[in-house]
Write a structure and sequence with these properties.
Number of domains: 1
Shape: globular
CATH class: Alpha Beta
Strand content: 5-15%
Structural class: alpha/beta
Order of helices and strands: EHEHEHEHEHH
CATH superfamily: Response regulator
Radius of gyration: 20 Å
Number of helices: 6
Length: about 210
Amino acid sequence: MATPPQPLEPRRVSILVLDNDPAGSSALRQILDSEGWRVRLIPDAKLLLTELRSAEWSLLIANIAMVDMNGPIFSIVRELASVSPEDGGRLRVLYLVPSNSASQYVQGLEAARLPYVGRPYHLHDFLEKVSDLLVEVKAIDVALRQVRHEFGGLRKKKKDAGRTNSMFAARDSYSSYTEEELADYERAESEASKTKRRGPNTNLGGNRR
């Protein structure tokens, strides 16, 4: 009897972040980690092509100020991200635009129809753009459309999909978070993770209640 085909394991989402801002990139990692995605940070554009060759990445999030839009790295990355999944494309790119450089880069990115987010960014819009790009390369099946409105965590499933959950706010009620606020979120998430790792209390006999 022929062995029935085994189901394919789901492809793990892998995100590469090019950013030389330690606080900002650390906050990005915390946000993306909360979705269960694998994240790697690199602080130097010289390492970018090596990293892209070393593994299969679903998404590159790149600080546009670190990439020369007229240089070879930008051209290579743009070409890689333009390949459709049907033709073997597995990478998409989202550019981060620093607030003090918006006038320098936004016009060029929009003219080239390249996806970007400006700092300080709106967490809801940021995760929507990330997930939309991941859907394009079939790294995930469904785009994220709900984001928790609190620093205690970014993802929590609704207990009852048929009821309104106060933890989810309408799009217009979200504010634009600064890097300092994202750092606050990161600290809060870290404390929550430590508490979770400690697990439930035990009695003196070592049995879990």
